[in-house]
Design brief:
The complex is a heterodimer of chains A (500) and B (484).
Chain A lengths: L5 H23 L6 H25 L9 E9 L2 E7 L1 H20 L7 H20 L3 H10 L1 H11 L4 H30 L4 H9 L5 H18 L8 H8 L2 H11 L1 H14 L1 H27 L4 H22 L2 H32 L10 H4 L1 H15 L5 H13 L4 H26 L16 H19 L2 H21 L3
Helix pairs in contact in A: 1-2, 1-4, 2-3, 2-4, 3-4, 3-11, 3-15, 3-20, 4-5, 4-6, 5-7, 6-7, 7-9, 7-10, 9-12, 9-13, 10-14, 11-15, 12-13, 12-14, 12-15, 12-21, 13-14, 13-19, 14-15, 14-18, 14-19, 15-17, 15-18, 15-20, 15-21, 17-19, 18-19, 18-20
Chain B lengths: L1 H14 L1 H20 L4 H21 L6 E3 L4 E3 L1 H27 L6 H18 L3 H19 L6 H32 L4 H7 L5 H17 L8 H8 L2 H8 L1 H15 L6 H23 L5 H21 L3 H26 L2 E2 L2 E2 L9 H4 L1 H14 L6 H15 L3 H26 L12 H20 L1 H15 L2
Antiparallel strand pairs in B: 1-2, 3-4
Helix pairs in contact in B: 2-3, 2-5, 3-4, 3-5, 4-5, 4-11, 4-12, 4-15, 4-21, 5-6, 5-12, 6-7, 7-9, 7-10, 9-12, 9-13, 10-11, 10-14, 11-15, 12-14, 12-15, 13-14, 13-19, 14-15, 14-18, 14-19, 15-17, 15-18, 15-20, 15-21, 17-19, 17-20
The chains are: A mainly alpha (500), B mainly alpha (484).
Chain lengths: 500, 484
């Protein structure tokens, strides 16, 4: 172990940035002009610095070594510990978070209402998201997992669209009800295993510490939380509401990072800790995944609101993740992790794309647009690229995730794979229709006549995302090799006890 | 013979220095007040707060490793009572300062206020140290009588008088239940001393259990656990706000500590019998406190139901019947007190055109009018809702741990679901502050209120979170040194 706790540094750097903004607000009372711009720059620099720290951490990280690395462990009291560490899967998701955060700050540059509070909440959220993936103590995990609700609730409630209060409440209460059941379950597990450390509990579980009957109950409690977070059909209904009403950057974070906590939870807890129950419930998850893929795709097709359409497409794409996770094969799980990373980039980009025209026109109705390609050629090109990514065109990262999860699931259950494959077709239907209606056709709405193409800030937002999706699309092995060690470690435990 | 008695008495007196200090203050302050009138209220309040802080210091400093019995075994000075007394005295001091500021602004100073708080604190000290049924009753009544008068403190105001009267009548009924239960216990075990009851309770048969149930009912009334909670909303609403803040804080901890003392001391052997009663009280309090609060528009009534809900958590911890349960209840209450005091500091800041306003709607748009106050209240209400990383979550965590450790998972699941329901109304307050269009601004509040709210928030996050291990250790030690 080296001397510098780099994982904690990068986790808490954004929180420190939030305190800095608080102090600035205190000393200037927010009065003098330029204060808000200063706050935005502070936030942007802090998120960039976090990304830089993350890259430094990556140099100290050994991708081929299974298990947790960069471990930090300090006693906290009451049997709890401040215990942080990452394996490859966690590192990849943290990297995704840190990659997207500076872009989100850029996307929020037009915010004018209570800028200090907005940026503080965003930075707090940044810390919490890294904490979720970095926590090695089960209670610490819960603390980070749940604490993210506070900034999200206020972000949606204050800076959201018209129906924001309803959406914020629905998001908060839905997620909370799932999580408290998980809390009861995880306290129970910690008492049984006499430890709150995730590796210890996993080891305890794999020595048969939890009977099958008990596993089923615990699995259900965790499922309640992760299925809502994911979100899986039929508990997905909070997502379209929350997405539609949230400010652009919050939508990006919600889709790109917060949803991944569900998939991460399945892989970190459900599979290794309750292998018997996971095998037992696999058919249920498969059916729910296929329904999510087909149903959400059909619903997406009928939307009139662009953001809602993308939200439903997220539900469909998350269906591939759950299917891949519970296939229990190496391709399936690798594909699920890859799909999470890819969806983080693509759906994040799509929400930013909506944000660009929303900033100019203040409407998200599909009908209000049409013919944008004439006025905004660069924008239309980028939009097309991410539409193709969403469809899963080879060459974009979307293809790799979908094909791998299907390949992984095929030997387990061919029918489920066939169902999921129709989802690929359906995604082409709704995504291309959306693109046709918004970008092609005649420029009919007179208000669109003066709409302008991307400015420098928006260029800066999209270039990293375009590069990201193409790199992952053409050279997926970069990510797949990186996460291989952790996938094999997770499956090593699962295979033995799932009787395979 | 006489010399020996004197020496024993004087050595016992040393052990009750916190009580003596406060009682001495109360008696001399009565004389001073009677002589100099209401002019000296500010001075007396300051002195009373000082006395409370010193009493807290005394209580904390002399906690013995083993329970030390004084006055022929009527009082037990031990780690548990020392811990409870420290927190009680500090909470009482905070609410006293809040109240003094409030009454001074309204020109309603009465010198009885600090005196009654001091007497009530003495009563609570005796309660948490009680080692026989008579002492228990005396302490409880001293605390309650002071509280009845405090509830009716604004005597020209009909609502305040009603609150006092209602509290008194219902409180007297509860005291009657408690006394009846005590008499049954005395009849079937032959003693009022906890030590003797402990030895013979399990042979006492049905009579003792009968008495115990009455005793628990009386105590449940004092801690406003459902279904003995009916007085709470009315008294909370009617009493002047700083008095409500006082009721919501220190006496709740005293009642929980007293219940722990009774259940874990003399009746430890009847655990299987009382556990069902406590579980029923806990479940009902959790649900009633959560559901009925949803319909409240007055924030003081809402806080009343919130306190009922929170008592459910403390009871759930006690239902565990283990050392862990007692310490979890103490930790829960330790974290609950600054939270509730902070919330009431916020309610006291709600003043418009020289009048107090108290509906939730009055908080509309507070975030744009008074961003700092709104921020503090947001932290406070998220904490009561039990959302991490705020201290309130850790309070809930330990009660869940205690309950699950004792195998009470059905109760834990009820508590978990009730938490979600209660979160809905706390969220509503936060929503009103952040989202609703701004209502006319509040008058600027005194520095005491801002400082109390700020200090409470700092305790909630990050002091009690980072120092959680320390609190937990202190409470564990308190419980393990007193309930072997």
């Amino acid at each position: 172990m080296n001397g510098i706790p780099i994982l904690s540094l990068m986790t808490f750097l954004p929180a420190a940035g939030a305190l800095l903004i608080l102090a600035a607000r205190w000393s200037s009372s927010g009065q003098h002009s330029g204060h808000d711009t200063g706050v935005k720059w502070i936030a942007f620099i802090v998120t960039l610095a976090t990304l830089a720290l993350n890259l430094v951490a990556l140099t100290q990280f050994d991708a081929s070594q299974p298990g947790f690395q960069l471990v930090e462990r300090v006693a906290w009291g009451a049997g709890l510990e401040y215990h942080m560490g990452v394996d490859q899967m966690a590192m990849a998701l943290i990297l995704l978070t840190n990659f997207l955060m500076p872009l989100c700050i850029l996307a929020s540059w037009n915010i004018e209402k209570q800028v200090s509070a907005y940026m503080m909440l965003f930075l707090a959220l940044h810390t919490l998201m890294q904490g979720v993936f970095g926590a090695m103590d089960i209670v610490l995990f819960y603390v980070f997992f749940e604490a993210g609700l506070i900034p999200m609730f206020i972000l949606i409630g204050v800076w959201g669209g018209k129906n924001r209060v309803y959406a914020a409440f629905k998001f908060f209460l839905y997620t909370l009800i799932g999580s408290v059941l998980m809390l009861v379950a995880l306290i129970f597990m910690a008492i049984m295993a006499k430890s709150t450390s995730i590796p210890d509990i996993t080891a305890f579980a794999q020595q048969g510490g939890f009977s099958k009957n008990l596993q089923i109950w615990l699995w259900l409690a965790f499922f309640a939380s992760f299925a809502v977070k994911m979100p899986m059909w039929p508990v997905h209904t909070w997502l379209p509401d929350a997405h539609v009403e949230a400010p652009t950057a919050a939508s990006v974070i919600l889709a790109a990072v917060l949803l991944k906590m569900g998939g991460y939870g399945f892989l970190r807890f459900s599979l290794p800790m309750f292998p018997d129950a996971s095998a037992y419930f696999t058919p249920l998850v498969f059916v729910m995944s296929v329904i999510a893929i087909i149903y959400a795709s059909l619903v997406a097709f009928r939307q009139t609101d662009i953001k809602k359409l993308i939200a439903y497409s997220s539900v469909a794409h998350m269906g591939f993740v759950t299917m891949g996770v519970f296939s229990g094969t190496e391709q399936g799980v690798q594909g699920a992790i890859f799909q999470m990373l890819s969806h983080g980039i693509i759906s994040g980009a799509l929400f930013l794309i909506v944000g660009v025209i929303y900033d100019r026109m203040h409407t998200r109705e599909i009908a209000a647009y049409g013919g944008l390609v004439h006025r905004m050629p660069v924008y239309a090109a980028i939009f097309l690229l991410f539409t193709m990514g969403n469809v899963g065109l080879p060459g974009t990262s979307g293809f790799v995730g979908e094909i791998l999860t299907m390949v992984g699931t095929f030997p387990v259950n061919a029918w489920v794979t066939a169902g999921a494959a129709t989802g690929v077709i359906l995604s082409a239907v709704y995504a291309l229709t959306l693109y046709r209606k918004v970008a092609f056709g005649k420029l009919e709405n007179p208000a669109l006549a003066t709409i302008t193409d991307l400015n420098a800030r928006e260029w800066a937002m999209f270039v990293p995302l375009v590069v990201g999706t193409l790199v992952l699309g053409f050279a997926p092995m970069i990510a797949l090799d990186f996460t291989k060690a952790s996938t094999q470690a997770i499956l090593a435990g699962y295979d033995v006890f799932a009787g395979r | 013979m006489e010399a020996e008695l004197v020496s024993r008495l004087s050595s016992d007196l040393v052990w009750i220095r916190p009580e003596l200090l406060l009682a001495g203050f109360a008696l001399s302050a009565t004389l001073v007040g009677a002589w100099l009138g209401n002019r000296v209220t500010g001075l007396l309040s300051g002195l009373c707060a000082l006395a409370l802080v010193v009493a807290a210091f005394f209580a904390w400093q002399m906690r013995p490793a083993e329970p030390h019995l004084v006055f022929n075994g009527t009082l037990s000075i031990d780690g548990f009572s020392a811990y409870a007394k420290t927190v009680i005295a500090l909470a009482a001091a905070a609410t006293l300062l809040l109240g003094t500021d409030h009454f001074a602004r309204r020109n309603e100073q009465r010198f009885e206020f600090p005196i009654l708080i001091a007497l009530s604190a003495v009563g609570m000290f005796v309660m948490v140290s009680a080692n026989d049924l008579i002492t228990l009753y005396v302490g409880l009544e001293l605390q309650s009588l002071a509280a009845y008068v405090l509830a009716a403190f604004r005597r020209d105001d009909a609502r305040s008088s009603e609150a006092g009267l209602k509290y008194f009548v219902l409180g007297a009924l509860a005291s009657g239940l408690l006394l009846y239960g005590s008499s049954l216990i005395y009849g079937f075990t032959g003693s009022v001393s906890f030590d003797i009851i402990a030895a013979s309770a399990s042979e006492g048969g049905l009579g003792v259990i009968f008495g115990l149930v009455f005793l628990i009912c009386g105590l449940a009334f004092k801690m406003s656990a459902a279904p003995f909670h009916m007085w709470t909303p009315d008294v909370y609403e009617g009493a002047p706000t700083p008095i409500t803040a006082f009721f919501a804080a220190a006496p709740k901890l005293a009642a929980v500590a007293l219940l722990a003392r009774v259940l874990y001391g003399p009746f430890a052997g009847l655990e299987d019998q009382w556990r069902q009663v406590i579980m029923a009280l806990a479940g009902l309090s959790l649900l009633i406190g959560a559901f009925i609060a949803l319909a409240q528009t007055n924030i003081k009534r809402l806080m009343a139901y919130s306190s009922i809900h929170n008592m459910g958590f403390a009871l759930m911890a006690l239902a565990a019947g283990t050392e862990k349960g007692a310490s979890a209840a103490l930790i829960y209450m330790t974290i609950y007190l600054p939270t509730t005091i902070g919330a009431f500091a916020g309610i006291l800041a709600m003043r418009r055109d020289g009048k107090d306003v108290e509906t939730i709607e009055d908080l509309s748009g507070l975030a744009s009018r008074k961003p700092w106050l709104a921020m503090l209240l947001t932290v406070i209400f998220f904490s009561v809702a039990g959302i991490p990383p705020l201290a309130g979550f850790f309070g809930k965590l330990v009660t869940f741990q205690a309950a699950l450790d004792a195998g009470l998972w059905p109760l834990a699941v009820i508590a978990a679901l009730a938490t979600v329901i209660s979160a809905a109304y706390y969220l509503n307050i936060i929503k009103v502050m952040w989202v609703n269009p701004p209502a006319p601004a509040f008058q600027s509040s005194g520095p005491t209120i801002a400082m109390t709210a700020g200090f409470a928030t700092l305790l909630i996050f990050p002091v009690l979170v980072v120092g959680f291990g320390w609190v937990e250790q202190a409470a564990m030690l308190a419980a393990s040194s007193s309930f072997p």
